[in-house]
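Today's session is about reading a structure prediction critically. Students often jump straight to the picture, but the first step is always the sequence itself: look for stretches that repeat, for charged clusters, for runs of hydrophobic residues. Only then move on to the predicted structure, which in these notes is written as discrete structure tokens rather than atom positions. Here is the chain we will use throughout the hour.
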Amino acid sequence: MSEPIRVCVTGAAGQIAYSLLYMIANGDVFGREQKVILTLLDIEPMMGVLQGVVMELADCAFTLLTEVIPTADPAVGFKDVSVAFLVGAMPRRQGMERKDLLSANVKIFKVQGEALNTYAKKDVKVLVVGNPANTNALICSHYAPTIPKENFTAMTRLDQNRARAQIAQRVGTDISNVKNLIIWGNHSATQFPDVANGTVDGKAVTDVVDASFLQSEFIETVQKRGAAVIAARKMSSAMSAAKAAADHVRDWWIGTGETFVSMGVLSDGSYGIPKDIVFSFPVEIKNKQWKIVQGLKIDDFARGKLDITTKELLEEKEEAMAICNGN
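Below is the predicted structure for this chain, in token form.
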């Protein structure tokens, strides 16, 4: 057993965290040999609920969980953490304009970015789950200038998992046989789920599944899956979001091997995407360092989809930075 690592989960009294904390404490993220200290960060009014979560974690008797620290203080929550799951955010409410949503989240991620900058380890790995995840990750990084920008990522793994599930169901195969699907762009309805480089049962997805499905129903299903879950469940995706967060950080921690995965990362200009927006790319990970997969073909159909999601992210960035500069 190695020395325990400190891991922070924000929004720790919420639905996503309720599933995610089990996965972390059970060894599903950092491996069965890695002990963890969990810091659970939430707002003061949720401290009573959070105590119930602490009790349940104790009652699970996890052998890898050495300590649990519930807190409403970011200084305590982020102290010496190696990994931070930023799950808590201001959700979009009916009638709320984007600038209002961004304004509320700038306040949250400014506080968290500054606290990470001051208290976390300088090699901390940060995953932003709370939406709008891409731009929230950009804001958080902006307020943590001493932490490398590549250490801030946004979650599009849920979209990738949804895409894989759709292809597996369409073909009638196990999901483990679906590989190298890509989510490009924003974690929003403008994202582009791309199968052009994907395989299913060792064959190109485009050779197995008809193009009319792949260019219409498939894309729309993945883009709108979150809304479909809300419509059916009357609550947003929680278990699947937690699983995706666990998958994202597990691959960042352990590596991707021969496959690549989708992560929202700071653009370096690859594939003609403007620099300095957090954009979902295909990445390979080795030694806890991600690298954008290069040399993939982008046809005219894909380029049109990338342009749409890029435009949205640039608009979000402009609005968010205007709010940051006004604070």
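Discussion point for the tutorial: DSSP finds eleven helices and 14 strands in the chain.
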